Amino acid sequence: MINIIINKISRLLSGIGHRMIARIWRLGAGARLFILAIIYSGESFKRFHLTLREIYFTGVMSLLIIIVSAFFVGMVLALQGYNTLQKYGSSEAIGVLVALALVRELGPVVTALLFAGRAGTAITAEIGLMKTTEQLSAMEMMAVNPIARVVAPRFWAGVISMPILAALFSMVGVLGGYLVAVPLIGVDEGAFWSQMQANVDVRADIINGVIKSVVFGVACTMIALFEGFDAPPTAEGVSHATTRTVVISSLTVLGLDFVLTSFMLVV
Q1: Strand, coil or helix: what is 201?
Q2: 18-48 pLDDT, tens per residue?
Q3: pTM (predicted TM-score)
Q4: Does residue 31 sit within a domain?
Q5: Residue 244 falls within a domain, yes or no?
């Protein structure tokens, strides 16, 4: 009986150890891919049209979902914020609430989550299919570096697209909040804009939001690229890789948001 218990504990510890080793290996492989993408960025910039094409694919093609989501998020913020601020006689500060919530948090975070769900999964599926159909191996046979040709352009496209999409999200969200607060609810238009301009600081709010969006862009894009490269060359493997991209990217964005917010508030 004791031997059976010992064997079960040994198998349990062995399974935990194998999982930990696999996670550490994947983390190291992802870091290696990131370093290689930086190293071979010079080669990809020589053919900048590849990066421009990926910016169109990851950024421009994501505009619709970003704009529509931002518009409704801004309207909901205005409704909820007015309902709360009215209790304390501060309904004129609704513009500040909407702007700060979007610029500091919701703009970068929601944009990153939408980016991971739309562009990240597309990048993973595309690279996974390239691996399945042995296009990456064919590039290596023709002395074409897959990192410089496939990874680096997509990496920089994501890093460039994310801050722009986050800025557009915040702008459209503020517009949605304005349309609800001023014409619909009846908040004074001058108070809405003047208090927003007076209380939104460029360094403490806007620059920190840009920093967050850049970090999220690096994280989401690298996760999508690594999952595509690491996907087993089967239909099931590619489908699981796209699922992991969304899950891991979402959890990473939320975790990084807490870390960055804590650091920015302390500094």
Answers
A1: coil
A2: 778 877 887 887 888 888 888 888 877 888 8
A3: 0.88
A4: no
A5: yes
Report the alpha-carbon distance of residue 145 to residue 152 in Å, rounded.
10
Please write the tens of the pLDDT for every residue from 130-139: 888 888 888 8
Measured torsion, CA atoms of residues 7, 9, 11, 16, in degrees rounded to the nearest 10: -170
Q: How many domains does the chain have?
A: 1
- Residue 241 has a CB neighbour count (10 Å cut-off) of 23
Q: What is the pLDDT of residue 216?
A: 94
Specify if 57 maps to a domain: yes
Distance separating alpha carbons of residues 15 and 13, to the nearest angstrom: 5
Q: Is the predicted pLDDT of residue 66 greater than 90, yes or no?
A: yes
Give the DSSP letter string of 109-158.
HHHHHHHIIIIIHHHHHHHHHHHHTTHHHHHHHTT--HIIIIIHHHHHHH
| 2: in domain | no
Residue 60 structural domain: 40-266
